[in-house]
Amino acid sequence: MNDFGLNQQLLIWINQDWANPVFDVFFQWLSAKASFSIPLLGIIIVIIGYRFGKSGWLFGLLLILVTSISDLLGNSLKDLFQHARPCLQMHDFIRFPKGGDTYCESSISGMPSNHAMNFFATFSFICFFFPQRQVIIPSLILTVLVGISRIYLGEHYPSQVITGAIFGSVLGLSLAVLCAKGLKRRLHFHET
Q1: Which residues pair with 84 in a beta bridge?
Q2: What total of structural domains would you count in the chain?
Q3: What is the pLDDT of residues 110-161, one digit of tens each?
């Protein structure tokens, strides 16, 4: 392990030293788009839409747009950076809690982590419009846990997750500022 840099050492620490059956199930669930990310986004949209009427439903559509832009940008950046995932460079040193030998089939490039980028973009956008502690604290905890899940599962290096978090936060806040200026008359968040 002395031959590895900090990025690889952090990956191995989280991927192996934290290993336990509860984390295996929990982090796989946090990383699942079909059973976690998409339903969570739907629940958020329904709650905000129901609570704030037309402004809330418009906000929900903007959340879908923010997440989609983030995902597309993340895929483009992966093509640009071409930074390999751990499953290619460290296959023999990491464990794959999902089972099997490798999960590089979807993409061999891992920079940035789209999971981290999408969550940080979406929740930065939400927190811009809803700056209350009861929104910011759970959002930050959730986004960090999703990022950690990607490292724990051996899908990304810590640097890929951190880069996704930075790009996502900047994107989410930038889009929030644009929407706040361009749609200020339509985005009113008072009880209906």
Answers
A1: 109
A2: 1
A3: 889 999 999 999 999 999 999 999 999 999 999 999 999 999 998 899 999 9
Q: Please name which of 46, 37, 42, 6 lies closest in space to residue 143, comparing C-alpha atoms.
A: 37
Residue 30 lies in a domain: yes
Residue 188 resides in a domain: no
**Rounded to an integer, what distance in angstroms lies between the CA atom of residue 117 and that of residue 71?**
8
| Residue appearing with tokens 């992966």 | 78
Omega cis (within 30) before 39? no
Instruction: In whole angstroms, give the CA distance from residue 39 to residue 45.
Output: 10
Please check whether residue 152 is in contact with residue 18, taking contact to mean a CB–CB distance below 8 angstroms. yes
State the Cα–Cα distance between residues 139 and 166, nearest whole angstrom: 15
CATH number at residue 78: 1.20.144
